[in-house]
Design brief:
The chain is an alpha+beta fold and about 350 residues long. The protein is built from eight helices and 13 strands. Strands 1, 4, 5, 6, 7, 8 and 13 form a seven-stranded mixed beta sheet that branches. A four-stranded antiparallel beta sheet has the order 10-11-9-12. The chain binds ligand DP6. Ligand DP6 binds near residues 31, 123 and 163.
Length: about 350
């Protein structure tokens, strides 16, 4: 599908309520660098998570005469000005794809299942759940829309809110971006992988909270800095190669190679931040301590655990479900001391968003 296929012209007026939950995701091959309207400079692939999610409810009605605002927003019962600005921008961006939006007022309420104090900033779960709620309005006007097109357009809209959000609609593995190795992959929306080894269906992600401070660099700024990063072109080449290598790894379930590529991606992402101008070091001393402990533990036990990172200090530990008990013991005994207020979250791979 191309961009114009996503325009739904009807401006019928409707009333209704729509509620969706959508999870966060953790990238294996990282998206870092974008152009035009939320298009990624390189393809990425992620595990969709289960427990870390956002629940969004939108009540909608036709706009009244002379009504200037088009939405109100409460996050966990309070207004959140920074998110208000993002939603405003998001609505402006998606209006051309669902013009009926211009003629409605939206009362938006959302909450997360993960604690504030965790420092997990989930634009992916927030924007994907919001996109799904807006798509429900389109579906009310056009009930014949197929499930496939509904999910595809939800991902397309979610991308306009936050790139990584395009990968949260479905699961357990979703690719996004142009890649010769992935059939049906698109720059415009995420596509769930059909073929992968069974071990990945129940992969675990234990998230260690190292730092809850607001990100020193927003993802948006980080992506922009890639425009001037002297290593950017090589990074995009590397990400493309890694995308094609990981496809086979995911298919065969080769965990040694999985570990190599996932950790390399995490460190390459941080290398890009460190070599941007201005540069950013988002890892904390405790991030490095945990990385070293994980490598040591892997060597001693031969348990196929690896780490990955987002644009922050927190660590995601990825491993097959069969090792859950052993890893839990390792986390509690050896890693808790590096976690902020001993916080960690046990999550696992999931199948994506759900209508409530
Ligand atoms: C490091 O999706 O948050 O998590 O499109 O500007 O909202 P925007 O960026 P965002 O970037 C996520 C970057 C990442 C890697 C990834 O998830 O692929």
């Amino acid at each position: 599908m191309i961009e114009k296929d996503f325009v739904f012209k009807s401006v019928e007026l409707v009333n209704g309520v729509s509620t969706w939950e959508s999870p966060s995701n953790i990238a294996l091959i990282k998206y870092w660098g974008k152009y035009d309207e939320q298009l990624p400079k390189n393809p990425s692939v992620s595990f969709t998570l289960s427990k870390c999610k956002t629940i969004t409810k939108i009540k909608y009605r036709p706009k009244r005469e002379n009504e200037t605002d088009n939405f109100s927003f409460l996050f966990e019962g309070s207004s959140k000005p920074s998110f208000h600005v993002k939603i405003d921008k998001f609505i402006n961006r998606i209006e051309k794809y669902i013009p009926a939006i211009k003629h409605h007022f939206f009362e938006i309420k959302s909450h997360n299942t993960f604690p504030h104090s965790s420092g997990i900033a989930s634009s992916a779960s927030a924007m994907s759940s919001l996109a799904l709620c807006f798509m429900e309005i389109e579906r009310q006007i056009n009930p014949k829309i197929s499930e496939i097109d509904f999910l595809k357009k939800s991902s397309f809209l979610a991308r306009l809110g936050s790139g990584s959000a395009s990968r949260s609609i479905e699961g357990p593995l979703v690719s996004w971006g142009d890649s010769e190795s992935y059939d049906n992959s698109s720059l415009l929306y995420g596509t769930s992988l059909k073929n992968f080894a069974p071990v990945f269906e129940s992969y675990q992600d234990t998230i260690l909270i190292i730092d809850k401070n607001k990100k020193k660099v927003s993802s948006s700024l980080g992506h922009q800095l890639m425009k001037f990063n002297p290593y950017a072109e090589n990074r995009f080449i590397q990400a493309n190669k890694n995308m094609s290598t990981i496809k086979n790894i995911l298919l065969k379930g080769n965990l040694d190679n999985f570990i190599k590529i996932v950790e390399l991606e995490a460190l390459s992402l941080h290398a890009m931040m460190m070599t941007s101008s201005p540069s950013f070091i988002l890892m904390q001393p405790n991030t490095l301590s945990v990385i070293n402990k994980v490598k040591e533990f892997r060597k001693q036990t031969s348990i196929p655990i690896c780490f990955t990172l987002d644009a922050g200090a927190n660590i995601h530990l990825l491993y097959p479900q069969q090792y859950f008990k052993k890893i839990q013991h390792f986390v509690i005994k050896k890693l808790l001391k590096y976690c902020l207020s001993k916080q960690f979250i046990n999550d696992h791979v999931g199948i994506g968003s759900k209508k409530i």
